[in-house]
Amino acid sequence: MSAASDRQVQGEAATHGQTLLTRTFPEIGAGGFTSRDGTVEFLTRVHSLLRPQMQVLEFGAGRGAGLQDDAVPLRRGLRNLQGKVARAVACDVDEAVRAHPGADEAVVIQPDAPLPFADADFDLIVSDFVFEHIQDPAQVSAELGRVLKPGGWLCARTPNRYGPVSLVTRLIDNSRHSRVLRWAQPERKDIDVFPTAFRLNSLRDLRRWFPAERFEHFTYRYEPEPAYFFNSRAVLRLMLFLSWLLPPVMKTNLFVFLRKR
């Protein structure tokens, strides 16, 4: 199959998936998002903490995929911090961060190396679906704590290690993630798929690496609309049933809000 044909098939599958979601969540017709939209929930809470004078770091920002690809204006607006704070910095280990459209500064960082920022440089750090990829939580948590000001906020969204999606993902070798995601989420681009580690995405992990004597914890579990249902009505219904059936400890996402003492 040619690249053009492959893109057409993926586009048709994504359209079919959106149609299934719209039939299940009719409120999508009023604004483009569901009443369980995790991005709206997470970033609305982040925005409630923002102040115009803040220095803000987006850790693991990538190319700013949501800003470039999200078709929903509200979500794009929530993702864009530029102009809402005094300084918006995006950093990532990938050179793609240089194309981030919502940053005053874009910085390429080195894996397992100190962050190239001064101590207590930032009032708020936001990290969206990054913690599940972190290989060395001791090093990363220490660096995030170092560059965050006392009283500053660390805000992160990550899959809950004990959620059904994470449990299934951990059974799949990282080398096969792109292939599986192309089937599960046809609109997802290979450039936005990264190896997972699942070493910093449980409440126990967070309490270990961000101890209570240094951080106040306001983290909560959240169940968004299903993101992975292979564009199948049967799988979508199954995922919705599981989300109702499973105990709170198995909710899909963790919304991490930590305040440095």
TrEMBL record:
Residue span, Methyltransferase type domain: 80-155
Coiled-coil positions: none
InterPro entries linked to this entry: Methyltransf_11, SAM-dependent_MTases_sf
Alphabetically ordered keywords of this record: Membrane, Methyltransferase, Transferase, Transmembrane, Transmembrane helix
RNA-binding recorded as keyword: no
Gene Ontology MF terms in the entry: methyltransferase activity
Name the record gives this protein: SAM-dependent methyltransferase
Organism for this UniProt entry: Thiohalocapsa halophila
